Amino acid sequence: xxxxxxxxxxxxxxxxxxxxxxxxxxxxxxxxxxxxxxxxxxxxxxxxxxxxxxxxxxxxxxxxxxxxxxxxxxxxxxxxxxxxxxxxxxxxxxxxxxxxxxxxxxxxxxxxxxxxxxxxxxxxxxxxxxxxxxxxxxxxxxxxxxxxxxxxxxxxxxxxxxxxxxxxxxxxxxxxxxxxxxxxxxxxxxxxxxxxxxxxxxxxxxxxxxxxxxxxxxxxxxxxxxxxxxxxxxxxxxxxxxxxxxxxxxxxxxxxxxxxxxxxxxxxxxxxxxxxxxxxxxxxxxxxxxxxxxxxxxxxxxxxxxxxxxxxxxxxxxxxxxxxxxxxxxxxxxxxxxxxxxxxxxxxxxxxxxxxxxxxxxxxxxxxxxxx
Length: 372
Description:
Order of helices and strands: HEHEHEHEEHEHEHEHEEHHEEHE
Distance between the termini: 41 Å
Shape: globular
Low-confidence stretches: 1-28
Number of helices: 11
Helix content: 25-40%
CATH class of the largest domain: Alpha Beta
Number of domains: 2
Strand order of the largest sheet: 12-10-9-8-6-7-13
Number of strands: 13
Largest sheet: 7 strands, mixed
């Protein structure tokens, strides 16, 4: 468990840290995983490590890509073959489609398979039982009670809180939240609920009131869409200042709307500031590093130690696994030092954040407008 403490408090730099000793030279971008090909050719046609994507695109510059970056970095460092698999039928993929992708990975030689997203649960349980010799890493998952599966979840409410607090301390009082998964994704729901709590805490400190548009409309597939862009453009035109984009490729729709309306955006999962100058900060979690650590454990005979007795890990501030990016800090009215102090309070438990998103509601200083 101690090793997980390396999980990214400089989350924006996790890949730079993970890439030490990597054979390829660092790319021009700040992400060394960009220098590693997404697809490789194996001499024997077999691939030791596999990645099965969540819904959305592999190169979503968010959840899928961030997780696969960790897979690629591990494979490059370890000198093992790797391949990614996308379930058939895109955002309409069924459990059978996901299972077939996992089976294809097993048939292709994988001894460890990283599966991204909570929707993998049913297919993953079936595959893990059918292929007990293969180890499965379930990112954004939970314990399946199987010795060859480790589920890794995150305390998204903590970094969501920090993002909401940062936005209001920066001076924004008209906020928005757009979530992926149609309201059924627990990780996204925790992000959003934490965001509301953070906005409330900062508004109380400043003695201001906050208005927040909050929706899962048009985000169920985690894909960009004209409908979502139109919705968010309307928000900006009517005074919304900053929107938390919480759902993979929907980021493209939200930043397009922001760019057209001089609006601002909060990114998610990875540091998205390099993708749009509308981004003021990002709510981050160490998805790539978690995948990398699990792969290291699986390949180095430490699986049981890593997975623990129940086959589940929940990582948060205490493990350095969530936060805001400080290396690209652009906020003017809330400093890195102030952020670090709050982070330490969350880490120690002095500042507790509720993770039960069923409690989502307007608060004393935050008026929610839930758009359904």
